[in-house]
């Protein structure tokens, strides 16, 4: 999955955090924002994804509520 599409969708939803492609051909990242917007992004990642992506599965781990955001933007992190 291209990280650029994930970045665009995250920004559209008003989320902050980061995303990166891995050497294994997967995408990983961190999402922060209103819980309903995070859920919308998770649904998009599970069902739509970027053009030409082949979604086999989507896993979301280490979910927690935060009092303040750790990030101010949504960005691509290069390995």
From TrEMBL:
Residues 1-78 form the Acylphosphatase-like domain. Belongs to the acylphosphatase family. Its EC number is 3.6.1.7. It catalyses: an acyl phosphate + H2O = a carboxylate + phosphate + H(+). InterPro entries: Acylphosphatase, Acylphosphatase-like_dom, Acylphosphatase-like_dom_sf, Acylphosphatase_CS. Keywords: Hydrolase. GO terms for molecular function: acylphosphatase activity. The keyword Electron transport does not apply. Pfam families: Acylphosphatase. Gene3D superfamilies: 3.30.70.100. Coiled coil: none annotated. SUPFAM superfamilies: Acylphosphatase/BLUF domain-like. This is Acylphosphatase-1. It comes from Oncorhynchus kisutch (Coho salmon). The keyword Hydrolase applies.
